[in-house]
Design goal:
Number of domains of chain B: 1
Number of domains of chain A: 4
CATH architecture of the largest domain in chain A: 3-Layer(aba) Sandwich
Oligomer: heterodimer
Shape of chain A: globular
Largest interface: A-B, 52 and 41 residues
Radius of gyration of chain B: 17 Å
Strand content of chain A: 15-25%
Number of strands of chain A: 28
Shape of chain B: globular
Strand content of chain B: 15-25%
Distance between the termini of chain B: 37 Å
Distance between the termini of chain A: 73 Å
CATH topology of chain B: Alpha-Beta Plaits
CATH class of chain B: Alpha Beta
Largest sheet of chain B: 3 strands, mixed
Strand order of the largest sheet of chain A: 5-4-18-17-16-6-7
Strand order of the largest sheet of chain B: 6-1-7
Order of helices and strands of chain B: EHEEHHEEHHEHE
Structural class of chain A: alpha/beta
């Protein structure tokens, strides 16, 4: 491919539209701060005040063409919001931990001095690994990369992990072991509307990735089929050709059932399977028993629907399988992912345009953020700490001896276990709100309280910041620059539209300054701009699976993003994966996995007869720390609710809008009932973007997938109790 | 080239991005001027937008005793002129779709003006710009004609794309866009 002329594809949706330019305003080209759709947008900046004052669609962004969800439209309102933390905060009275109270403003110098004193003290008394870093992937690649280096070189601790463990880790685990590489999507999003059959499992796409919807509807407008597997009749399921309304936690049985029928119906691409995969016979043996009858019994989906879905998927000339947290946030999340990848492999629907498989990444930089060393076991470029060659290379970029590289740490939720044991005593938390987003919150809150010293870096006082001793004010996405990698695996550029508000600083600057004060300046002081970090991080990724070496900021700008791998200056990047049918395992073949079904960690029983599942609403993002503060979004959905089927509601004698007590073995909360027929009778649903006593994660279970260490947010057992109003004061 | 707002109701997912965007056009005082309804809230997730249809002979303007509601040369029925509106609310009652909203503090009617600052120069209104589902689109008459052919209007079951109360500048495809689709296989 000739680099000079290369531009990532634009499709028939693309229209040349001029933007409206208001007087005394500049339009700054960037992308949304929220999910991995990373919708293109312009921020309107008043040139006299240098303040962001609004948003303008970016019609020329080929993925989303100016489209935005309500979060995207109002995203700019985060920047100059009254709740911004403008100066560092210190809390001297530890007894106030877990509340908003007791913080006083301080100078950066005082805050840094205190952090350095406490961190050094802990490490002198309890060893280097007594500190931990808990990161997030709503940050640029530059920040995610530096956070890994900050933990391992700046703080010299092994304990670093990040919120992607609650989000993308099962997808990463499944894709890595099936295909040998974890690029979340094997195809660019501009292929989606051109496929003939979309099989979407465990994704409330309309609410979580709304700007995919025009492409998805277009499949049906062309005469293609839409198959949705979801316990709820979400807005996308409502219009599906087949809605597989399965019981939460039974996806593996459903996928095995589809595989059973694909084999039985002769829809296997035998050439492809023979030449490009291993493991077919073992897989076939396992799915043998998953007849439509057994599959229907386990999943609760009518046999006819399973048969119809398998037929439509099997017959499709081109088909794409998409999945998301619904199948991934389970104790068998990795197996679920591999099972759905099996479907695309046995039918040969991978490695060519309009056919493939993708996880619909949740967080803005969920893809890039997991590739560059924030994960407990990973180093930049998707390298592994367990691999001495990988350690050697990254050490050489960082200027340390390979022996100095800390060993593998533990996953996000497991870090709370180490806090309980006092192995971890200090925490540096950034870009995440685990006091809302973790499962089994009563336990997690206790461990956060239990810490000797905690730093939280955020731009709002999150529920997690309430447990901190020091809160450092960082910038929003619009006050810094850098790259993110979107849902497709396309690296894109975020631009600065406004100077940092108050005394806030970008995360990377805070980490450089802290490292200098910890006596580790020689590894960090040369990083004076986000651009400097980009140069170092591209080098650190060079030669890894997720190779960004050739993805320069200039190239991103010129060709509307760069799909990794992008190995050098001449390489335009890789929009489609596996076009040469070479997978990333040593023998070039993909692996079909034989995956026996197993139930969820906590199945409903007499005491807790309902299945509780969780998810999102379109108005809120993740823990809601940002979106709950935006007036339009809060007005549209101020509080969480529990969705209950009318027949179930009748059984409990509860009605629409009535407050009920919902409880599990781990916790309880009170919610208003939302009656809807769009949910299974055996299942209740609560959105998770709220904190304190409104958190549904007080009830969820901390059971982890054995490979990805992903908690099972999507299925636990619960019970509803009518509140006796006579007893309520 | 003249472009129109065009609606495909059954694409709607209820995200209300159109309402959020309505506050952002710059000329709307950050107040949204349209509606999205839950069609059957206790049953399913069906929603639909209710947008001003910009009638050719609009009831709102006809009912205005103060000539406060002007019709732009593009056909857009504008919001009430601040200096003329007497706050009588005739328009809010007259409109069969209930589009005009009333600000009691300002004693002023306000309604969708198709983001006239944008649409007069062919730039799509904010709602149609951001709509993630293509429920709201900004199309030429030729594109709309193609849509009507594609969706096989006037099949023997029902007629889509008819005018509603009277002749409107906005075009609406009533439910049924997939009825005439021939499946690929």
């Amino acid at each position: 491919m000739q680099m000079d002329n290369f531009k990532n594809p634009r499709d028939h949706f693309f229209k040349e539209v001029e933007n409206l330019n208001h007087p005394n305003e500049e339009l700054v080209k960037t992308h949304c701060s929220y999910c991995a759709m990373q919708c293109g947008m312009y921020l309107r900046v008043n040139t006299k005040t240098n303040k962001i004052i609004g948003v303008e669609p970016r019609y020329d962004w080929p993925v989303t063409l100016g489209k935005m969800c309500p979060k995207g439209v109002t995203a700019y309102q985060q920047v100059n919001h009254q709740d911004r933390i403008l100066r560092p905060l210190i809390r001297d009275d530890q007894s106030l931990k877990g509340t908003k109270e007791g913080f006083r403003e301080a100078s950066w110098e005082e805050a840094y001095d205190l952090i350095v004193k406490k961190f050094k003290g802990l490490q002198e008394n309890y060893g280097k690994d007594s500190l931990s870093v808990y990161g997030g992937v709503s940050m640029t690649n530059e920040k995610c990369y530096l956070t890994g280096k900050f933990a391992r070189v700046g703080l010299q601790t092994r304990y670093i992990d990040y919120n992607g463990r609650y989000c993308m880790s099962s997808a990463a685990g499944g894709l890595n072991r099936s295909l040998g590489v974890d690029r979340g999507s094997t195809i660019p999003w501009t292929d989606i509307h051109e496929t003939d059959c979309l099989f979407i499992a465990g994704s409330n796409t309309a609410e979580c990735h709304p700007t995919s919807m025009f492409r998805i509807w277009a499949v049906q407008e062309r005469g293609g089929y839409l198959i949705i597997a979801d316990p709820r009749e979400t807005p996308i399921a409502r219009r599906a050709d087949v809605h597989l309304d399965l019981r939460p936690g039974t996806d593996l049985a459903l996928a095995n059932g589809i595989l059973h029928l694909l084999i039985k119906n002769g829809h296997v691409d035998e050439e492809f399977v023979k030449n490009h995969t291993n493991g077919f016979e073992e897989m076939k043996q396992v799915v043998e028993e998953f007849t439509p009858e057994l599959t229907s019994e386990i999943t609760g989906v009518a046999k006819e629907k399973i048969i119809r879905a398998a037929e439509l998927y099997g017959k499709a000339p081109n088909a794409i399988v998409l999945f998301a947290r619904g199948i991934e946030q389970q104790i068998k999340g990795v197996d679920n992912v591999s099972a759905y990848v099996n479907m695309s492999l046995v039918t040969g629907n991978i490695g060519r345009p309009k056919a493939g498989v993708a996880t619909i990444t949740g967080q803005g930089n969920g893809q890039g953020g997991r590739e560059h060393g924030q994960k407990a076991d990973a180093l930049p470029g998707y390298r592994k700490i367990a691999n001495p060659e990988h350690v050697k290379y990254v050490s050489s970029v960082w200027g340390i001896e390979p022996e100095e590289m800390p060993k593998e740490g533990v996953s996000a939720y497991e870090m709370f276990g180490l806090m309980e044991q006092k192995t971890i005593r200090g925490l540096y938390l950034l870009c995440s709100n685990p006091a809302v987003s973790s499962p089994n919150l009563n336990y997690v809150h206790q461990q956060l309280k239990n810490l000797d010293f905690m730093v939280c870096v955020d731009f709002y006082l999150s529920e997690s910041a309430e447990f901190a001793d020091v809160v450092l004010p960082t910038t929003t996405w619009a006050e810094d620059e850098g790259t993110t990698t979107n849902v497709e695996g396309r690296t894109i550029k975020i631009n600065q539209a406004q100077k940092p508000l108050g005394e806030s600083k970008p995360d990377w600057q805070i980490q450089v300054e802290l490292s200098e004060r910890l006596g580790r300046g020689k590894y960090f002081s040369h990083l004076k701009t986000a651009r400097d970090i980009n140069d170092e991080f591209r080098l650190a990724s060079k030669g890894g699976y997720a190779d960004y070496y050739g993805a320069t900021w200039e190239k991103i700008d010129k060709q509307d993003g760069v799909f990794w791998p992008c190995k050098d200056e001449k390489d335009p990047g890789t929009p489609h994966m596996f076009l040469d049918k070479k997978f990333y395992h040593p023998d070039g073949k993909a692996k079909l996995f034989a995956l026996p079904y197993r139930p969820s960690a906590e199945e409903p029983d007499q005491e807790y007869p309902l299945r509780l599942t969780t998810g999102r609403v379109v108005y809120h993002y993740l823990s809601g720390n940002q979106t709950r503060r935006i007036k339009f979004l809060r007005d549209m959905c101020p509080d969480p609710f529990v969705e209950v089927h009318p027949e179930t509601a009748a059984k409990y004698n509860i009605s629409h809008e009535e407050s009920v007590r919902l409880f599990s073995r781990r916790g309880e909360a009170i919610y208003k009932v939302k009656i809807t027929e769009a949910i299974r009778k055996d299942t209740v649903f609560v959105p998770y973007s709220w904190g304190h006593e409104q958190s549904i994660n007080l009830l969820t279970i901390g059971a982890l997938d054995p490979i990805s260490r992903m908690p099972e947010f999507k299925a636990c057992a619960a019970q509803i109790e009518k509140i006796d109003m006579k007893k309520v004061k | 080239m003249n472009k129109r707002l065009y609606l495909e109701l059954e694409n709607c997912i209820g995200c209300r991005s159109c309402l959020a965007a309505c506050t952002q056009c710059g000329g709307h005082d950050e107040r949204n001027r349209n509606y999205v309804y839950d069609v059957n809230p206790l049953v399913n997730t069906q929603t639909m937008p209710l947008m001003c249809l910009h009638c050719v002979n609009p009831a709102c303007a006809r009912s205005c005793p103060a000539q406060a509601i002007q019709i732009h040369e593009t056909g857009a029925v504008l919001s009430a002129l601040v200096e003329k509106c007497i706050g009588c609310q005739n328009c809010t009652i007259a409109c069969p779709y209930g589009i005009p909203k009333f600000d009691t503090e300002q004693n002023l009617m306000y309604k969708c003006d198709l983001c006239i600052d944008r649409s007069k120069d062919g730039i799509p209104p904010m709602c149609a710009s951001v709509c993630p589902t293509n429920t709201l689109q900004w199309l030429t008459d030729e594109e709309i004609e193609r849509k009507q052919k594609q969706f096989n209007v006037k099949n023997d079951k029902w007629v889509t794309s008819i005018h509603l109360e009277n002749e409107t500048n906005v075009r609406v495809n009533l439910p049924g866009i997939l009825q005439g689709i021939t499946k690929l296989y």
